[in-house]
Amino acid sequence: MYKGKARAYTNIALIKYWGKKDAQLILPMNNSLSLTLDAFYTETSVTFSPEYTQDTFTLDNDKQDEKATAKVSRFLDLARKKAGISYYANVESQNFVPTAAGLASSASGLAALAKACNDALQLGLSDKELSQLARRGSGSACRSIFGGFVEWEKGYSDDTSFAQVIPSDAWENELAMIFILINDQKKDVSSRDGMQRTVETSSFYDAWLDAAATDLQTAKQAIAKKDFAALGEVTEANGLKMHATTLAATPPFTYWSPESLRAMNCVRTIRQAGLPCYFTMDAGPNVKVLCQKKDVPAILDKLKQEFSPEQLTSASAGKGAVSLEMEVSK
Ligand code: DP6
């Protein structure tokens, strides 16, 4: 029996990953840049045993259906291949998120699973190799292997596509992200399906790729200069450009709900009143607000005039994935 357990924190992209050039290997069309956060994380344990007759996957104490288990199995196959074993596995994952507002993250989940497999099967992978492995589970997971500011280099092959830390002199510790949780009942388009539809059909997609390359350079310069306004502006602009591509897809779609728009306007109003803060959104209605740590209380005060306290959570910069326990008995 081989057992490993690991924790990984979620990350939010400031420059988004949006589109794959290879869906099998999960090679992205563009480089992306994220901030790993401390408030939301996943702990995953994996046990490989000759006694199991199939893979099983439990998430937040709920046994998952065939589709979710098959996705985990495909990932486990990669780890089994590296280890040269064929044992089935039991995977147990726990998401630590403040509310059930659709924040369960595939990034922290797959990064934790990659790290747990590395420990269980004693694969001895470096962080770079772990990032490559996590990427095969979910693209954004490759960034959650690392803490702080992280860039995912798109690469051109399995070996050349991985994330790494952007040196920042620990500037990320002065920053924060406030989550405005918006839980509408709309049916989701997953990020996987959404980005595929956009690459295949959106007439704005080429413009997105041009913009993403320029925005990435702007963001990296802002980090090098510790220029918060410049980083915030490019974060907000890049997120808006990503979301614009969905409107030009066939069929068109959007992740925005009326409440998302209300939150975005609220952030703009707070900014115009003199508190620097900038929004970004991913493949769902929640709005995330990048700000400086020193301004969090004042920004929260303003947001509380518009949203309930349960809808608001703030996070600081988080660490990379960590091992929790491992056990090998033969
Ligand atoms: C909008 O990493 O969830 O959050 O690689 O298909 O698993 P797959 O997609 P995923 O996509 C994340 C998209 C995003 C932007 C980002 O995190 O960069």
Automatic annotation (TrEMBL):
The keyword Lyase applies. Residues 179-315 form the Mvd1 C-terminal domain. This is diphosphomevalonate decarboxylase. It comes from the Bacteria. Residues 8-163 form the Diphosphomevalonate decarboxylase-like N-terminal domain. The keyword Lyase applies. InterPro entries: GHMP_kinase_C_sf (IPR036554), Mev_decarb (IPR005935), Mev_diP_decarb (IPR029765), MVD-like_N (IPR053859), Mvd1_C (IPR041431), Ribosomal_Su5_D2-typ_SF (IPR020568), Ribsml_uS5_D2-typ_fold_subgr (IPR014721). Signal peptide: none annotated. Its EC number is 4.1.1.33. Residues 310-330 are annotated as: Disordered. Belongs to the diphosphomevalonate decarboxylase family. Keywords: ATP-binding, Lipid biosynthesis, Lipid metabolism, Lyase, Nucleotide-binding. Coiled coil: none annotated.
